[in-house]
TrEMBL record, chain A:
This is TRAP transporter large permease subunit. It is found in: Cell inner membrane. Residues 12-431 form the TRAP C4-dicarboxylate transport system permease DctM subunit domain. It comes from the Bacteria. Keywords: Cell inner membrane, Cell membrane, Membrane, Transmembrane, Transmembrane helix, Transport. InterPro entries: DctM, TRAP_DctM. Pfam families: DctM (PF06808). It is a multi-pass membrane protein. Signal peptide: none annotated. The chain crosses the membrane at residues 12-39, 59-76, 88-110, 116-133, 145-168, 174-197, 224-244, 250-267, 288-310, 330-355, 367-387, 407-428. Part of the tripartite ATP-independent periplasmic (TRAP) transport system.
Automatic annotation (TrEMBL), chain B:
Belongs to the TRAP transporter small permease family. It holds the Pfam family DctQ. The complex comprises the extracytoplasmic solute receptor protein and the two transmembrane proteins. The chain crosses the membrane at residues 23-44, 56-74, 95-113, 133-157. Residues 31-160 form the Tripartite ATP-independent periplasmic transporters DctQ component domain. This is TRAP transporter small permease protein.
Amino acid sequence: MSHELIAVSMFLGMMALLMTGQRVFAGIGFVAVVAAVALWGDRGGHDLAFTSAIKLMNWFPMLTLPIFVWMGFVMSETRMADDLYRMFHVWFGPVPGGLAVGTILLMVLVSAMNGLSVAGLAIGATIALPEMLRRGYDKVMVTGIIQGGSSLGILVPPSIVLVLYAMIARQPVAHLWLAGVFPGLLMAGLFIVYVLVRCALNPRLAPRLPAGELARITWGERLGLLRAGVTPLVIFGAMMGPFVAGHVSLVESSVIGALIATLVAAAKRRWTRAIWETCLRGTLNVTCMFMWILLAALAFGAVFDGLGAVRAIEAFFLENLGLTRWQVVILMQVSFLLLGMFLDDTAMLVIVAPLYVPLVRALEFDLIWYGILYTITCQIAYVTPPFGYNLFLMRALAPDHVTLGDIYRSIVPIVGIMILTLAIVMAFPQIALWLPGQVYGQ
Amino acid sequence: MPALALGFVRGVEAVNRRVGRMALYLLFVLAGVLVWSVVAKAFFRPALWTQETAQFTMIAYVVLGGAYSLMGGAHVRMDLLYSRWSARTRGAVDCVTVLALIVFLAVILWGGIESTAYALEIGERSRTVWRPYMAPIKIVICAGTFLMLLQSVAFLIRDIALLRGTPIPEARP
Amino acid sequence: QGAPIRWRMQTYAGAALGEHVVKPAIDRFNAIAEGQMQIELFYADQLVPTSELFRAMQSGTIDAVQSDDDSMQSPTEVTVFGGYFPFASRYSLDVPVLFNQYGLKEIWDREYAAVGVKHISAGAWDPCHFATKDPVNTLADLEGKRVFTFPTAGRFLAQFGVVPVQLPWEDIQVALQTGELDGIAWSGITEDYTVGWADVTKYFLTNNISGAWIGHFFANADRWAAVPDRLKMLIEVCFEQSHYYRQWWYWGGEADLRVNGSKLQLTSIPDAEWATVEERARAFWDEIAAESEVKARVVEIFKKYNDTMAKAGRPYRYS
Ligand code: NA
Ligand code: NA
C-alpha cells in the first residue's frame, strides 16, 4: 500500500466510524490498532496502543486535567459565581447592554479560574441567562455571547486544550498559557465592542434597568459587592503567582487553585452530599473521556507516523501543491474550521498531531503561536453545528422558549468575531508571543 | 436472554461499579501527593517519589474508572445521525460498532500483557533515582483495560437483548 | 531482487540534536542504498516512549535504535555503563578504543545477543558538564541543587548533595526558567547551545564527571539477520560515519563555545578539590563491580585502560 493510500484510508475509515455514533475514542483507537496490526510489518506494531498509555502516563502536565476539571465543577455546582454575577450586574447595569458586558467580564474571570468552557457555560446559562431574559434582553444576542464568552476558558490560562496541544506538539505549557492571555483579552474586548455597538444601534436589544432599582442599592452595598471579585483574583493569583515565579510546578499550582476553590465553597457552606457526588463523578467522567480520546489519538498518531503517512502528507502539501508557507497555514486553518464543525477538539488533535505540527515546524512557524491559532479554531468548533459542545450544553441548559433555531442563529456573529480574532493573531503573532517573551526572556 | 448472559451483565456491572466508586477517590490521593510535593519543596528537601506516584495514581484513576465512566455514558459520540435514530436503530448500529471498542481494548491488553510479563521477568524499574518497580502499575493498566473490555461485552449483550425485545433493565447508577 | 527492506529507527535524541548526531548518516545510507533498503528515522518518543524503546525493538515494532544503555534501561548487565559512567573516559576517542581494542565490544555483543538484540557499534558523544543558574566554584556549591541528570550519574552525584530530578526531556528548558531546576548535568556545552539550555542557564562548570558519553546503534536480531551482507556492511559503515561526525562536531564545538560562546560564563572547581570526586568514583566503581561478574570485568577493563593511559603520559593524560 502506498503511503498516500494509507493516509487516506486511515482518515476516511476513522471519519466513517465516527459517523456511526460509536464513542469517539473507540473509532480512533480501532482504526489505529487495525492499521498497526495489519500494515506495520511482518510482526510488531500491536504494542503501540499500550505504549501510548505509557506515553500518556509519562507526560506530567497531564496531571492538571482532573484537577482543573474538579475546579470547574466546584465553581459551577457550588454556585460560587453568584456573587460575582451580582457584582457585574450592579456595576454595569446602567450602561446600555451593561448586563451583557458584565456577563462577558464574568466569563473572563471564570475562564481565569478553570481550563475548559463547560463551567463557564453552566454558570452563564444558569445564572446570567435567566436574569437577562427576565430583563427583556434579546435572547439571540445573549445566548450567543454566553456561548462565545465561555469558550474563552480554553484560551485564557489555565487551559486544558493548550495542555493537550503542548503534549502533542511537544511545546512548553507555560509559554502556551501566557501566549493565550492577550488573544483571550482581545477576543473578549471584541465581544464587548460588538455588544455595545449593537445596543447603541438598537436599544431594544437591551432595555436599561429601571432607575429606581439601582437607586435602592447604596454605594456601601456596591463597594461591598466588589469583594466578590476578590475570590477569583485570589484563586488566580495563588495559582499563577508561585508558578510564574518558579516556586511550584504547573501541576502543583493547579492543586493549590483547586484546594482554595474547594475551601472557599466550604467557607460559604455550599457543600452538600449531592453536590459532592456530582463533582466527584463529573470529574471522573470528564477526565476519562479526555484521557481515552487522547490515548487513542496518541496511538493513531504513532501508527500514522510509523506507516509513513505523515511524510506523504507533508510532501503533498509542500511539494505537490506548490503553495507558499502562508498559503499552507491559511489552508490548514480553513480545514480546521471545516473539521471543527463535525469533530470535537480532542478529535481534531488527532489530525493536528500527525499532520499539521510537523508541517508547521517544517515551514518554520512558531509552534507556540500556532497553538493559539489552534485553540481559537477549537473555540469556533465548540459553537459550530452540527457538533459543538457549547451548542449541546446550551440546548440542555437554556429555558424552553430559547429554541434550537435561536441557538444556531445566536452563534453567527460570535463565529464572525472569533474568525476576526484568529485573523488578527495570524497577522500579528506578537499579540500571542509578546507576553511569554517578556516573562521567559527570549 | 439466557440466564448466563444476564448473570454476566449483572456481575460485570456490579464489579465495575464497585471498582469505579473506589477509583473516584484516587483524585484525592493524587491531590494529596501533589500537596505533599509542594510542602516538601517549601520546608524540607524536594521529595523524589511524588512525581511518579502522582503519575501512577492518575493513570490508575483513568483506567480503573474507565469502565464506570463507560457505564455512565461519559464518552462523547458524534451524534449528528445517532441522536435522530430510534433506540432500536441505535442498538442495532451499536451491536456492530461496539466491536471497534472491543478490538481497541483487546489490542491494548495484548501489548499490555506482553509488557507486564517483561517487567516481571526482568524486574523492570523506572529510570529515576527513586527507581520504583514498573510491574505494579502495568498490572493496574491491564486490569482496568480488562474491566473495560468486559463492560464492552456487557454493552453488546444489552444491545442484543434490546433487539430481541427483552431489554435488560439498567441497574442503579 | 525482492521488495525494498524498510526499517524504522528511533533515536533517543530530540529533533534539534538529531539533525546533527544521526540524521546525516541516515540520509547518506538511504542515498547509497538506492532504494534497496530505506531507514526511516524517528526522534525521541515519536513512536514509542523512551522507557518502552528497548521492548519495542525486541518485539520488532522498532527495527533499530540509537541510544545509550542507561536511558533505555536495557535488561543487561552493562546498562549502568552506558551514558555517563563517572570518570570512565576522559576523551571521546577513549570510547572506540575501549570497545575495539580493550574488549568491551565482545562483552556488549554477547550481552545483547542474549536478549535478542544485535549490538551494531558503540560511539562517543560529548562530555558531561554542569550548566547552572548560579555559579559553582566549590563542591559545597553543589549542595541542594536540583539537577536534571542521567540515572547512574544521579546516583553517584547524590553523595555531594545534588538532588537529581527526572523530567521529560522536552520540559527541561521551561523547568529551568520556572525554577523547578537549578541546573543540568547532562551534556557538554555544544548541546547546551544546540538545544537552547544555554539560553536559560548562566554558568558552565569546566570540570566534568565523564569525558564522553557511551552510546550505540542496535537492531532487532531477526531483522538484522534478514538484511543481505552487502547492506549490513553499508549500515556499519554509515553508523561509523555517524560516530566520526560526532567526534569532530563535539570536539570542535566544546572548545569553540568555551572560548567564543557568549551565553555561558565558565567556572571551575580547583583540581585538588575535584580529585575527591574522582576518588569517590573509584569507590563507586568497586561498588558496581561487586554486583556481578560481567560488571566486574567491565570495571577491570576501565581500570586497565586508564592505567595504561596514565602511564603513557602526555598527551594521553596530564596528571
Ligand atoms: Na482558562
Ligand atoms: Na463544531
